[in-house]
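Reply to dn_fold:

You asked what the input looked like. This is it:
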Amino acid sequence: MALTDIDLANIDSKPFFKSQVQHLLNILYTIYPEISVYLYVGNGEHGFELQNLPTNETHLFDIIPSDVPAIVDMLSAQAVESSFIQNQANSAMFSTEPDDWAEFSVISPMGEPAKLLGFLLTIFPKELSRETVSLTVFNDVAASVAANSITSNLLDSYKDRSDHLSVMLEVNTHLNVAATKTDFLFEITRFGKYFIQFDRAVLVLHPENTPEYFLIDSIEGDEKDLQQGMSYPVYNSLVSKVIISGHHFIYKKSNKTESEGIYRTGDYEDYPYDQVIGFPLVKVKNGPGVLVLESSREYPVKQSELAIFEMISQSLGAALTRFSLYERLNNYATIDTLTHLYNLRALKQRFEEELARAGRYQNSLVVLFLDLDKFKLVNDTYGHLVGDFVLKEISQIIRDSIRTSDIPGRYGGEEFVVIMVNADAAACMASAKRICAAVREHPFEVNEMSIDNKISIGLSEFPRDGETMQDLIQSADAAMYTAKRRGGDQVVKYEKGMVPKSRA
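and this is what came back:
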């Protein structure tokens, strides 16, 4: 959809917001299939109103007052974090008796401690253990819903402005639905010139994991004297000042009075641009980044133009937050939290995709089924924490022993599966033997203990040993079990007549 095709007078941002919220909630339903999730938004009258979503069931009241114990605790908390609540203690929330649910729910506030937008309330089935619930997942979903809400509200507020801001509305609408950071920066460069003249736009990010540095993430325009991927310390520069203070800056070569540089100390002495303006992505101290606009000549900048670009930069910041959270949430849905390999659901999905591709193009495909030898003894002797340490180490050994194109996943417990695409059985047998040797020789050292481990591996090949995912895994499992019966610590290729443990 081109920006010029947008009906500015009649645009409605709410469908965008609802579809994005639904996408986020679907991630929760993927991770915890039997849950029920509800979105409540503050109604301005000291209560919270249930939002109409397709997944809502008749479990809760449409309006929850703010004097319910869980709401009181949420409103008085110093940090915006998800927490467990007792259903019976907060029965005023529920329109039906919670006898068939777990004793607890999770409430996930959205917004800032002093300015909450609302919350997510998640009800769990009775059979779900509290220990299996990761509050981090719910924190990330709630934060992303809040970011989408802020962007949606910005769009609605622009509709009430004069025609002077119509292009601003187009830019922000496109930012709200665009696909990549590159798209964002391109549109800002293309349409931003209606308001501020500049020759280059630079997106600077300030990562949470390295707060002492900022990174040149994207450049729209000439990369002279600046390269994508470069990093600089947050010290003694104008970009650093924006990050630290949360306020914009304007640099003009003709009247510089600062001792700092633009990106690093002293760089303005030979800098190719005469005017530079930096806008924070979020107007907070030590924020997530800066949008920098650079011009080859100086010109007056109106306060209204600065206000417009502050709005653009904040919309960009909200969109980048959404992208980052989507990526993290997708990892929760596809990656095993202990081993950081594919989880079973994602592994099966990738298996079906590669199997279809192999059948269509007559490519080779080999499956390894791996199982640690006598792992139960490790857990029983040293405890499950040590067992988890061993599984993490094994996962790293598997990753180091296969190609980047291969697909490793945790099948369950101490069992792993590797899908090896476009490789013949002989090459895959060599990789499997490397894994066996690496596990046998690896020093599993923890708590001043050294633990010996070995692994058995079965190998099956498409289409020789099966044409479906189930048949190939069953064949590889049968070969792995044969390896265990022969003493373990070896690789066995499937042959007819071998049977898996379940049928032995």
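Residues 3-152 form a domain with the Beta-Lactamase fold (CATH 3.30.450.40).
Hope that clears it up.
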